[in-house]
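WARN no homologs supplied; continuing
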Amino acid sequence: MSNNTGTTKIIEKKPINILLVEDNPVDEKYIQELLKEVKFNFNLQIVNNLASAIDLLKKDDIDIILLDFNLPDSRGLETFNAIVLIAGSKPIVIITELKDEYLIEYTLKKGAQEYIMKSKLSSEYLSNVILYCIEKSQLQHDL
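OK structure emitted
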C-alpha cells in the first residue's frame, strides 16, 4: 500500500462504511480493538450471521466487507458465494483461520481482494488492507 494522493483523498472523504461479518465474540472484539487504532474515519456495523449480512447489504451503503467464513447459518464457500452475489463490486476481505489453499485460491479468483489469517492480523496491516481495497475499488469504478 503506497501513501499517494488517492489514499489521502479516501481518508479525507466521508467515513468508510465497514461491515464486519463475524460470529465469534472474542474475534469480533479483537477486530474492533484493532480498528480503534486506524488513522481514518469509519462506521462499523457488525452482524453475526449470513442472513443479517445479506439484509444489511441490500439496504445499506457498505464500502467494504470483512468476512469470516464460518457462521451459524452457513459455512465456507456457501458463505462467500452468497456474499459475492449480493455485494457486487464491493471489496471483500476474508478474515479467517481456515488455512485451505483451495479456499484461498478460489475466493481470490472469484472476487475477494484479500485473504487474511486471524493470527496474522495487526492494526497497521488491517488498516493498509482496507485502504488499499477501497482505493482499488474506486479506481476500478472510475475506469
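The chain has one domain: 15-142.
OK
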